[in-house]
Design goal:
4-stranded antiparallel β-sheet; about 40% helix; 6 helices; 5-stranded antiparallel β-sheet
């Protein structure tokens, strides 16, 4: 499978990388804590976080604005941050072997993107493009480690939810793969 080329810009800090991709800084994401809390009950990642825990989490994040059409996560890039969508809709796309984009998902507020690369440091699996004006909070790996060190209860809770989220996605992918494989493999009874 063809991977997008990596550039020397892959090692930029999250803020610098996002500015380069066209996002604009909005300051601390804690200013959006009430909005995040109001929407948090809709998603498993933050569903049982208290307003105080949301405030703590967002205080470790920087908020950004992305205009419609802005690709703020680029497939193949070596970035170490995840984003929490606060406002707007995002299209997740993957390049095929011929360089054509295929939609993987549509993401709405209080869902996260980029968790895998934040955790494992591997290149981005897909690109994320704002379908409309978006606001999102950014949590880098270094800020996650600070959160775990300085606010261990909130940090551990977030880390556990991230592991559960990634595990759920892996199970869904495995189920889809098994369904696909069962369609491709002739039945043993034939």
């Amino acid at each position: 499978m063809t991977q997008p080329p990596h550039s020397s810009q892959d090692s930029l800090l999250p803020r610098d990388r996002l500015l380069q991709l066209g996002a604009k800084p909005l300051g601390s994401a804690v200013t959006f804590a009430d909005q995040v809390f109001a929407l948090a009950q809709r998603v498993p990642l933050l569903a049982d976080f208290s307003v105080e825990e949301i405030q703590t989490l967002t205080s470790y994040m920087e908020a950004f604005h992305a205009p419609s059409g802005c690709m703020f996560i680029e497939e193949g890039a070596l970035d170490d941050y995840m984003v929490l969508i606060i406002r707007g809709t995002v299209e997740v796309v993957k390049l095929d072997n011929w360089g054509h984009r295929s939609r993987v998902a549509i993401v709405t507020p209080v869902q996260t993107l980029g968790e895998m690369s934040m955790v494992d440091g591997e290149p981005r699996f897909a690109s994320c493009i704002a379908m409309e004006e978006c606001h999102f909070g950014v949590l880098s790996r270094s800020k996650l480690l600070q959160l775990i060190d300085q606010q261990p209860q909130v940090g551990a809770k977030l880390l556990l939810r991230l592991v559960q989220l990634l595990s759920s996605r892996l199970r869904q992918t495995s189920a889809k793969l098994m369904a696909y494989m069962s369609q491709q493999t002739p039945s043993a009874s034939r």
